[in-house]
Design goal:
Rossmann fold, single chain
Length: about 100
């Protein structure tokens, strides 16, 4: 160590490693929760990410609006969130793409 100049560099690297470990642990936890969703819940979540209303999701998925609400409730529960904003934040971290009926 030359005049103590290495110490801040090492400390910064240790801080970066700890931050990376926290981020990795959080992402692993989010992926675990996402894996609990059924295919239909994933579809509904994808529509929600796209900004669709319950009525629109119901029409596009050929299910009742009440069923959409039930799936949304299950998604919120399984993803362990209390708000739509929180769900959207998590969806962004998981890179969940909007659902598309484009089957080309």
């Amino acid at each position: 160590m030359i005049g103590g100049s290495l110490s801040p560099v090492i400390m910064n690297q240790e801080g970066t490693i700890r931050a990376w470990e926290v981020i990795t642990k959080e992402l692993t936890n989010l992926k675990r929760r996402f894996a609990l969703l059924t295919p239909r819940e994933c579809e509904v979540l994808s529509h929600v990410v796209r900004g669709r209303l319950n009525k629109q999701i119901a029409f596009e998925s050929d299910i009742s609006e009440r069923t959409v609400k039930a799936h949304r409730r299950q998604v919120m529960e399984k993803m362990e969130v209390d708000s739509l904003a929180e769900l959207l934040r998590i969806s962004g971290k998981l890179d969940i793409q909007p659902f598309s009926h484009d089957y080309r």
